[in-house]
Amino acid sequence: WLSGGDKGLFLTGDDLASDLGINAGTSGLAFLEDVMGLNVTTIDVRSLIDNQTTPLVLGAPGSPVLPNLDSWIAYGGCRSINTFDGVTTRAGAIRLAEFADLNGNPGGYDFSAATLNHFNTNRVISLPYDLMYVYTDANAKSLAPLAARAQMLGDVMTYLGATSGGGVPAAVPERARFAVSSYPNPFNPITTISYSIAKPGHLTLKVFNLRGELVRTLVDGQVDASGEVVWDGSNNQGSAAASGVYFSEARLGSEVVVNKMALVK
After folding, report:
1. How far apart are CA 191 and CA 184, in angstroms?
2. Who contacts 145 (Cβ-Cβ below 8 Å, separation ≥6)?
3. CA 20 to 30 Å from 8, out of 147, 186, 214, 250?
């Protein structure tokens, strides 16, 4: 298919790169290196990005592929951890995004969180994690018109020339958005976590640390309206949590929203 040239290919998957590089023989390795333009450093990048389970991803300024996304979250899960490949770009490939450091800054790691490679006359875009784990960064400097996953897919399809009739993805009108925010952030000693819901349902609101460990369960029950809850920086045992970065994870039905918080003492 690619031998015909002028094709566009979008590849995502938690273990896609490592499977190709390690388990698929010489042909798989050649596809990884030549078509995707990548080298695999590790099958689990967490230990090399300061044990971040749910890292913030920063898009490269002026990205030709993702012009509408400054940042997003690569969600590694909290109930169970899914691992991401650590990949670096080969000569000619372009790093479209990188993992931010613990303070949310760029430049800390060499790994690529999104890559563009030109293979002959083909354009190949890849993520070292599954598209389903692209979550909206609630603290983005400029929020994209759509949720991060939808915006990414729309931008990629547009870049690859796959949108028909010049159309662009559009949000469903007249539907309230499930959203979570915290203020102040950074905070000391308390922060208020607000949530808005589209309809009544069973809400869980939990706080996790960077290692994906449960710190505090704030809500676990039926809610009928939007509301807020205060987190005083303590864990489920009543002890004070250490200074650092935490994530609130809100689940309502099949929807999940993750929000990054910093406790500074």
Report:
1. 6
2. 68, 151, 171
3. 147
Between strands 179-183 and 244-252, the pairing is unpaired
**pLDDT tens-place string over residues 76-93:** 765 567 789 999 999 999
pTM of the model: 0.66
Contact in structure between 79 and 54 (CB atoms under 8 Å): no
pLDDT, residue 169, reads: 54
DSSP states along 128-177 = SS-GGGEE--TT-SS--SS-HHHHHHHHHHHHTT--GGG----PPTT-PP
Cβ-based neighbours of 139, under 8 Å, separated by 6 or more? 185, 259, 260
Tokens 């959203």: give the residue. Answer: 179
Phi, then psi, of 149 in degrees rounded to 5 = -65, -45
Q: Residue 170 class from Cβ within 10 Å (0-12 exposed, 13-18 middle, 19+ buried)? A: exposed
Burial tier of 107 (Cβ tally within 10 Å: 0-12, 13-18, 19+): exposed
State yes or no: pLDDT of 25 exceeds 70.
yes
- CA distances to 48, 82, 138 from 202, rounded to whole Å, are 36, 24, 22
